[in-house]
Amino acid sequence: MKKIKMIAVLFSVLVLLSGCAKQAPKTETYIIPTSYWAYTSTTPEKAVETFYDLGEEYYTDVKIVDEGVQAELTDAQRDRLIQRNNDYIKKLVTEYETYNSEYRYVPDENYQKVDFYFDEKIPNLLHAATVYNVAAGYGLNYILANHTTDWHVDISIYNCHTDQLVVSINAPYETVSYGPAEWAASYNE
Asked: Cβ distance 167 to 120 under 8 Å?
C-alpha cells in the first residue's frame, strides 16, 4: 500500500511539473523569396549562413527551399530582425544626411516606398550604398511585417535644390538608371 501511495504522489508531482513546463513560443513560417535574394545579389546559401551567424535570437529554423529561404520565426525573432534592419537603415541614412545637410530621406512606416533628396554631386559609393541598401532593408522588412513573398519598394529620387523628381523606380522590377538628362530636367521644371 505504501508503494502505491508513493507511486501516486510521484505521478501527481510529474503531472504538476509537466503542466508548469514552459511551452515553446509559437513560430510562423516566412519565405524570403528568390526575387529578394536576386535583388540583393546574395545567394540563399549565404543568407542561411547569415542567419546562423546571427544566432537563435533571430531564428528558430532556417533552410533553403525552392521559393527562396524559409525561416521559422517567433514574433520576437521577427521583430528583432526588423529592428536590426531599421538600425542599419538609420546608420546609412545618418551617413547620407551628414554628408550634405541638404540631403534628406523620407521614410515609410509600411516599408513600401522611400524618397531620397540629393543632387548630382553625390558620390557614387554613397549613392549606391544608401539607395540600394535602404531599399533592400525595406524589402526584407516588408516581407517580414506583412508575411508575404509579394514585395516591392517604390524609390523616388528628387533634386534636393528644386524638389523636382529625377527618377522613380519600382524595386526589384526596375533598376536605378538615370543620368545628366534627368538631372537637367529636374532643374528646368
From this structure: no
**Residue found by looking up cell 540600394 in the block:** 132
Q: How far apart are CA 97 and CA 156, in angstroms?
A: 16
Q: Which amino acid is at 101?
A: S
Residues 137, 86 contacting (CB under 8 angstroms)? yes
What are 3-6's contacts with CB under 8 Å, separation 24+? none
How many C-beta atoms surround the C-beta of residue 91 within 10 A?
11
* Amino acid code (one letter) for 183: W
Whether the pTM exceeds 0.90: the reply is: no
DSSP 181: H
CA distance 114 to 9: 64
Cell of 43: 545567394
How many residues appear in the chain? 189
Cα separation of 169 and 158, whole Å? 12
Tens of pLDDT, residue by residue over 72-128, are 999 999 999 999 999 999 999 999 999 999 999 999 999 999 999 999 999 999 999
